[in-house]
């Protein structure tokens, strides 16, 4: 599979924010989010072909008990299931960060310690509409068709044999996004607890995150959702390998 980068940092988002972790970033994605902060793993995928054994060797070089499989979209690679199996042999905690559009039946029982599912709301649309064009680009059409897969999202929500814990992470740009998010959760009808729903301000710089974070935090207080910071951006900026 194509690997963009493997690096050791701290988890910057979600329930495990602050935990030292090895990140395995695959290169390749079926979506084209306008605010994607890793275009080198999605829009312009770049990286090197690595075997599962090679990835495991690199991961085990670091003194960490947590591994994060991210991207891009890790679930597009069937080798991810075997990678999870091999990493579990080393007794590592595995987080899989995914948009929740694809599922791999081959993932072993108990293989995912934390599924971090981030369904893409309409604010993710590529917006590549050409001036004077009545139809969107191929990227827009493909993205809109694939960004929400209710069947797969329900699989992530209910599969207790493969997934031990889960968090639902939504990128929020404006208050209207909350309405869309809640409609999606209602459609899933999977009994998702508000304590598992994390709202993250959209932004790749400290100033934007702070500005959006202030009103988003108030929404979290009012509605009972969890606020999701981007700690790695605050510490290192929007840089690769962090």
Can you count the helices? 7
How are the strands of the biggest sheet laid out side by side?
3-1-2-4-5-6-7-8-9
Q: Beta fraction of the residues?
A: 15-25%
User: Structural class given helices, strands, pairing?
Assistant: alpha/beta
Percent of residues in helical segments? 25-40%
Which shape, going by the Cα principal axes? globular
Strand elements, count: 9
Question: How far apart lie the N and C ends?
Answer: 22 Å
Mean pLDDT: 94
| Pattern of helices and strands | EEEHEHEEHHEHEHEH
Uncertain runs: 129-134
Taking Cα atoms only, what radius of gyration do you get, to the nearest Å? 17 Å
Specify the oligomeric state: single chain
* Main β-sheet description: 9 strands, mixed
Molecular structure report:
The chain is α/β, with parallel strands linked by helices and 242 residues long. Helices cover 31% and strands 21% of the residues. The protein has seven helices and nine strands. A nine-stranded mixed β-sheet has the order 3-1-2-4-5-6-7-8-9. β8, α6 (206-223) and β9 (226-227) form a beta-alpha-beta unit. α1 runs parallel beside α2 (79-89). The longest helix has 18 residues, at 206-223. It is globular.
């Amino acid at each position: 599979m194509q690997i963009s980068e493997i690096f050791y940092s701290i988890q910057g988002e979600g329930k495990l924010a602050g935990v030292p972790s090895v990140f395995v970033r695959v290169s390749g994605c079926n979506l084209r989010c306008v605010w994607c902060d890793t275009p080198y793993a999605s829009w312009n995928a770049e990286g090197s072909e690595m075997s599962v054994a090679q990835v495991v060797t690199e991961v085990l070089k670091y003194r960490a008990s947590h591994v994060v499989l991210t991207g891009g979209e890790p679930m597009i690679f069937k080798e991810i299931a075997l990678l999870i199996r091999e990493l579990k042999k080393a007794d590592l905690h595995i987080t899989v960060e995914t948009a929740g559009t694809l599922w791999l039946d081959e993932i072993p029982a108990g293989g995912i310690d934390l599924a971090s599912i981030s369904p893409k709301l309409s604010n993710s649309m590529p917006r590549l509409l050409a001036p004077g064009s009545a139809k969107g680009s191929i990227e827009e059409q493909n993205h809109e068709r694939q960004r929400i897969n209710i069947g797969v999202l329900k699989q992530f929500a209910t599969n207790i044999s493969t997934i031990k814990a889960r968090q639902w992470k939504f990128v929020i740009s404006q208050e209207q996004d909350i309405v869309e998010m809640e409609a999606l959760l209602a459609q899933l009808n999977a009994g998702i607890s508000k304590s598992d729903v994390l709202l993250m301000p959209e932004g790749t710089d400290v100033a934007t995150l702070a500005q959006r974070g202030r009103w988003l935090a108030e929404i979290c207080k009012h509605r009972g959702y969890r606020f999701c910071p981007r700690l790695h951006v605050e510490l290192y900026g929007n840089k690769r390998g962090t």
